[in-house]
Amino acid sequence: MVRRVFMLYADASKYYLQYLSAQERSEDTLEGYEKDYRVFRGFIEDVFNGPVYIEDVTRDNLENYMIYLKEKRKLAPRSRNRYISSIRSLFEYAEDKGWIEKNVASKVKDAKVPEDQKVTLTEDEVDQLINEIDKPLLKTLVIFMYRTGLRITSAINLRLEDVDLDAGTITACIKEGKIITIHISEKLYPTLVEYLKSIRDSDSPYFFATKKTGRVSPAYMNAQLRAAVKRLGWNKKVTSHTLRRSFATNLLRNGVELPYISKLLGHESVKTTMIYLNILSDDLKEAINKL
């Protein structure tokens, strides 16, 4: 007979984070999970008026937590879903370890996310955006992200040795430790040469590095994009992820087949790639007229 282990929620989340670290999850991922677990700990210990064992957390507690995230913290549906997804992962681990009898979090439904128009930029708009950014480092990073389709976290975590100009390749770590090799395009190559020769001024091991901190943060990148969009007078929300979506959509518009785009994005399924594509009515009109 297996002896039950009574585990406090605070300890369970700590051990799970240690497990994720041993699985080589990125620092950004670990920080995100740690924040999610800290927020839930504040909520659940307030409910129980003190430390709580993870096995005592009920489905009702978790559903009330979703209400709390909406009404008290004013979080959007996607953000609430990310918080509860982190909790599901923890409870799945706790069930596997024998700390709880069943994963009550698996029954908690996600908040409904309203469909909105995916924002993409045309090739001309990308050029306008690049020209509007006056900081050479960030200008290079925008060009890099648009020409590779990499996520911001993958791009800023690249080290110098990951970018091999002689071989014409980039070795990048994408989601969950998956490694992909990207070929440097003819349009991107001279930009990277110029960056290393004349722009980069840092002893940091990271490829994209400021002189002061040795890193570029996603928040700083997105703030600069918002400022550029405001100066351009555009009425659209542009983030670093918009560059990845624009990369995929413009490849499609230029005749690249979906399986190739999926491969370039590092997706395992074409269905995932479809989420990134912004197929407008003009694209559909042009497509039907090709028959």
Give the helix/strand layout.
Blueprint: H1 9-22, H2 27-48, H3 59-71, H4 77-97, H5 123-132, H6 136-148, H7 152-156, E1 163-164, E2 169-173, E3 179-183, H8 189-199, H9 218-232, H10 240-253, H11 258-265, H12 270-276, H13 281-288
Antiparallel strand pairs: 1-2, 2-3
Structure description:
- The protein is mainly α and about 290 residues long.
- It has two domains: about 10-105, DNA polymerase, domain 1; about 125-290, Intergrase catalytic core (hpI Integrase, Chain A, Orthogonal Bundle).
- Helix content is about 55%, strand content about 5%.
- It has 13 helices and three strands, in the order αααααααβββαααααα.
- The protein has helices spanning about 10-20, 25-50, 60-70, 75-95, 125-130, 135-150, 150-155, 190-200, 220-230, 240-255, 260-265, 270-275, 280-290, and strands spanning about 165, 170-175, 180-185.
- Strands 1-2-3 form a three-stranded antiparallel sheet, with no helix packed on it.
- The protein starts with 8 loop residues before the first helix and ends with a helix.
- The model has no long low-confidence stretch (mean pLDDT about 90).
